[in-house]
Give the backbone structure.
Amino acid sequence: MKLGITGTAKSGKTTIFNAITKLNADISLYDIKQEPNIGVVQVLDERITHLTELYSPKKTIYATIEYLDFPGIIEDNENHEFLSATSMGLIKTTDALAIVIRNFEDAYLDETFGKPNPIKEINNIIEDFILSDLVIAEKRLEKIHLSYKRGIKTAQLQIEETAINKAIEALNQEKALKEIEFTEDELKSIRGFQFLSLKPIMIILNSDETNFKNNQTVIDQISLIAPVIEFAGKFEMELSKLDDEEAQIFMEDMNINESAVNRLNEAAYNLLGYISFFTVGSDEVRAWTIQKGDNAVIAAGKIHSDLARGFIRAETFSYQDIIQHSNEKTIREKGLFRLEGKNYIVQDGDILNIRFNV
Ligand SMILES: Nc1nc2c(ncn2[C@@H]2O[C@H](COP(=O)(O)OP(=O)(O)O)[C@@H](O)[C@H]2O)c(=O)[nH]1
Ligand SMILES: [Mg+2]
């Protein structure tokens, strides 16, 4: 899974990126970097920890999320600068975006960009997304019409034209494409454009540690736009440099019950409707990520395409059952060991062993 961190310049994106990845990317009040920072984090899942205790495997592999920290969008009275072409190309490869919003005061930033104004800032960014999508959609419509003139008028192209027209109409009314009903074929026809306003978004309210957890009114307002979590970015970046025990003490002080990375990872899973299944054995205990509603063949394909192609059945039991009974023998005796077919909808916490033949 790839998650983009974006937002206005100096909202604290890199600070939060550092808090999450424990990296030490450059943060500064004045500079703007052109290229994104990239870091990979493990999705710490205590179920994997417990399964590792039970199976003592040679290897334990957690799921990972790749975070990309993009250069900021410049937004003040004189300047309006959207993402560079490089960043634009990269941001489109992400599965979802976390938009960091400044909710801390700073003499220099207040003077340059104005006092923090979370709602205005979010709306500006959403407008940017819509505008960027509109430019792409209009260009595409011209190309389609050009093809028509040249006598190319395939059914496929006509579906795309319908979709693009719908998109342009919505975007002109400042609606995000997420809110528009497209048919499955229409969606497929425009998927390649990776429209920003089609991407799932969540919002990180980056609050000063002095007002952290005192922003319920703003949070309620923001949550009408997208799911929101509050970070005390600067504080949490400092925390990520401490060892776990020390960090725990400071977190309790601030009434933070989970590390920034765990909170953000969990929010990302929720936003995207992702769940985990596991494979276990003496060699390896491993977490895999799928979408809620995915069947056993899709799950098998995450492990290896051969397992999907030659799928026979999925030997299945649940995490809860193995933890309760401690061994697979008892699970079999109790009838909790199931043989599931292709159409079985994999559940969060399922442990699968795929039987296949290629
Ligand atoms: N007071 C305060 N300052 C912050 C916070 N987060 C970031 N900053 C400061 O804001 C400036 C810009 O931060 P940076 O992470 O580089 O922002 P970016 O441009 O969005 O990546 C730096 O001077 C940070 O120290 C915060 O939560 N509280
Ligand atoms: Mg930055």
User: Anything to note?
Assistant: Residues 9-15, 27, 29, 72, 104, 106, 206, 208, 232-234 surround guanosine-5'-diphosphate (ligand 1) (CB under 6 Å).
